[in-house]
Amino acid sequence: MPILILVVVGVAAGFIATSIMGVKANPLTTIVLGVVGALVGGLALRFLFMMGGLVVGFLAAILGAMLLIWLWQKYGRNG
Fold it and tell me: Could you tell me the residue range of the domain that residue 47 belongs to?
């Protein structure tokens, strides 16, 4: 069940992060960035602050997705 929650939160975070950052990416890229961002953001925030909770995890997922989108824009895209 936690993996399903991670995927759902990651998908939502990816779409919110791409909207906030004004990125036009295809849905698969948005979903992958959101899920990986949820992992990165959730782990980093829990590690740094030892906090839990759905709201904190969701905010961390959005921030993680935004970080990955920024890195993708800067280094990943060809053009």
Answer: 2-73
